[in-house]
Amino acid sequence: MTDRIAESELIINERGSVYHLDVHPDELATDIITVGDPDRVQQVSQHFDRIEYKRQHREFVTHTGYIGSKRLSVVSTGIGTDNIDIVLNELDALVNIDFDTRTVKPQLKQLNIVRVGTSGSLQHHIPVDSFLVSTYGLGIDNLLNFYQNTPTAAELAILAAFINQTQLGGNVAAPYISPCGPAMLPYFSEGFHQGITVTCPGFYGPQGRVLRLPLSNPGFINSLTHFNFDGNIISNFEMETAGLYGLGKLLGHQVLSLNAIMANRVTGQFSNNGKKTMDKLIAKTLHILTSI
Fold this sequence. Notes:
It is built from six helices and 14 strands.
């Protein structure tokens, strides 16, 4: 018999919705777009032909609707892998846990989850306002270290090269790495750069920005730009992808992270057309998802 999940572990609201997202199982599609900014949910759902549900709790906004016959949900995560931990676990709970019995369902459902977010390029050839798909998410944020996770030999090799080439030492938590959802990647090849995305636990010091505080490892960002292991380069960094890929892999979902490049840390440029670039990425993403 499957163990019952206690009320303290899975919190269900009075209307039968999951705690943080405030979404009921019937209100979630199996094809999901995640965005960091709650205001970006409407930027996506304005393309829907009709919207079935709108839910909001704290920074978590969810719209579920249709484009033609394709049912989609858009969910805001907020910033950082701490929020990704909440969102991925609750999305999985909505489809794979019976809320009445509080037990895991015997037949598990796989979600298709596509992050549409912003990022900073670490390579000269990946310019501002371009698009990038993350082949791997490499986390220096510690989230996946709280879960049982067995890296493959290929993943361990990349991690060993990363630790050696960046000279991380004791400056950060043990890094982890997870691949994108392989079934999703072929659909997002044309018009996208590719590379390893490093996920940082902050925007300033962890991404090498200096305002008033000196950094413990001033050469870290430069070492990311020059990293190379068997042709694998670090293309960009942000604050969510590794958590999405790691939890997605462990939970059995297909996850892909798409990035609109807002800054190039090599050239020092920042986008003057950020909203226009994001609009283009949203339209491109929806076109691809509705054709699958």
